[in-house]
Amino acid sequence: MLVLGLILLLLGYFLHISILWTIGLILLIVGAILWILGAVGRPVGGRRHYW
């Protein structure tokens, strides 16, 4: 999710497509939150690890 968010963010920025930039930013933030929650050992969605 982090990689997809970063790719969409960059594509939206360089191609001047604001919806891609917005979706990329949202995916990047959600991915970072899930990664942090999984890293501290808190179960995310019933799983101990989030890939």
From TrEMBL:
Assigned keywords, A-Z: Membrane, Transmembrane, Transmembrane helix
Name the residues that span the membrane. 6-38
The name on file for this protein is Uncharacterized protein
